[in-house]
Design goal:
The protein has 376 residues and is mainly α. The chain is built from 15 helices and six strands. The N and C termini lie far apart (53 Å).
Amino acid sequence: MTKRPRHLHVYTDRHGHERIYLRKPGEKRVPLAGPLFSYQFWEAYHRAAQGVSAAIQSDTQPEDRNPPGSVSAAIAGYYGSAEYKQLADSSRSNRRRILERFRKEHGTKSLAKLETKHINAIIDKKADKPAAANELRKLLHIVFEYAIGAGMLTENPIKRAKRVKYVKRSHRAWTDADVESYRKRWPEGTPQRLGLEVFIHTGLRRSDAVRLGWSHVRDGWITITTVKSRHRKTLNIPIHPTLWHHIKDTPRNQRTFLHTKWGRDRSAKGATNWIRDAAHDAGLPSDSSPHGLRHAICVRLAEAGCTPHQIQAITGHDNLAEIETYTKAVSQKRLAQIAMDSLANPQSGLANIDTNILKMLEALALPSGIEPLSPP
């Protein structure tokens, strides 16, 4: 782990943004560029430590760092592109962190001379971290496509570069038993209980759930614009009766429902640790995260007979295929039950039910208990 230099102050503000300052005793604090320990951070830190003006740098870098036709120039250009600027703050930070590591090692190299074999060699070095290798490959593909559009390159060598195969880890969905154990440990009126009910009855991403408050509630509906989606969208979610029971007595002047004990807005990462700690106290597995509750509501909606499009209307998933994994799993379970019941009782005729009728019934089925509930 990299040791922090002296006089450094780092914190996450109420919007979830990382703030970095150099604060020497007796001197005015100086804001530094992030992310922490990135190339631009160290550059700003050393300038500030020497007494040179170090205001937060923009997403473009000085020309002497970006020789024309270099990998560094392409990355710097991408930072100034509309595609990059339209990303959520957290996405920009994550992409920049990965690209800056690559830039530090390969930035001075000629963009035109970078071939597929060179990319493969770089990926091979990351074979022990396949997810990171594939993420780097994806980001380089994006940067090189930008470079082609900017006239810096004629062909993208990433297109033929290898992908590292691996079994992708998924967030574990909370079971009904998990939810019950959590509720027994955290009774009504506790912040931890409210956190559970918000996550499991909205299906919101943590970055959106931590912003949720009375300003988003009206006439029995939650209306909130997402911040994490590839394309920001406005979701309209009916308030579940159970959720209304837990939020109705929350003070109307409280900015968010899931604020900290000091009254501050909770960050997305802070919410993850908060729910995990509460789940651990309830005896749940260590991988019990808020995202697992998002999975759980997808499973519950699928079991209630919702179609992928109906589930998407609640959760705001960008990719319908992600939701279809839940509906397919539920359909497989239902069909397996019919098959086994038919085997146990061949005269029942269950296996001969018209599949078109089954599909129609599933499409028309509505999830119970999520009808809008108008506040009294």
